[in-house]
Amino acid sequence: MALRAALAALALATATGAEAEQSFSGDYTVSFLGLTIARSTFSTRLDGPDFRVNGSVNAAGLAVLFDDTSGTVSTTGRFARRMPQADDFRVDYTEGGKSRMILIGFRNGTVTRTLNVPPLKKRGSDWVPIEKAHLVGVTDPLSAVLVAADSPDRVCHRTVRIYDGEMRADLTLTPHSSGTISVPGYEGPTVVCRLHFTPVAGYRKGRRALEFLKNRAQMHISFAQIGTTGVYAPVHATIGTQIGTLTVSARGFGVAN
């Protein structure tokens, strides 16, 4: 659960004014009902329109008593027309003592392969199947939260089509407010977007948790610019669930060079 929660909360013409390769790192805490359940660290390298992100997520706090999930995640790709376009996405994690892996390959926004180890279980008649057309013009959950924008007021005007190896969903960002944040490595303005989640395929019809996220959940995500690159990354997010609020908060956020 810890890994999935972190990715879900974190699940962004060519972008950026970056003239040279830049790197930044972010450290995050994932909490639920005020209790820390996971910690994660991500490093991102930007080289013109190209990006590479590597991260790790581990259960923390009281959650380790119930959930021993830990794992790594990575993605590579580029920005095209200000939207993230992934090449390769990979997740390796251990949950309940069992190792799992998800690997997705993309080409020009179209999924070329998906590998789940172990294979996904056979689904019933209430499952919404993924069709070929669903896998065109999509990116992975990690790339989806990297946003390229010419100015802060353009950060929240977008819908990102994501695919995580099983589910296809749309994430729509709309303007909400602005703010500031002060954490090690960064002190400055943030852009706050309202987030709307729409499942498209690869899910069970009538699942109450998804229906709540789609129709009733209050979700917001705050972005800060990475240096002067024109690329924005998350520094805070809140996701309402049926039993409480999941919060992702940056403990550190800074440019490495």
How does this model look, in words?
- The protein has helices at 2-10, 208-215; strands at 22-32, 35-47, 50-59, 70-80, 83-95, 98-107, 110-117, 127-128, 147-148, 158-163, 168-183, 186-201, 203-204, 219-225, 231-241, 244-255.
- With 257 residues, it is mainly β.
- The longest helix is centred in the first third of the chain and has 9 residues, at 2-10.
- The radius of gyration is 17 Å and the shape is globular.
- The chain starts with a helix and ends with a strand.
Short description:
The chain has helices at 2-10, 208-215; strands spanning 22-32, 35-47, 50-59, 70-80, 83-95, 98-107, 110-117, 127-128, 147-148, 158-163, 168-183, 186-201, 203-204, 219-225, 231-241, 244-255.
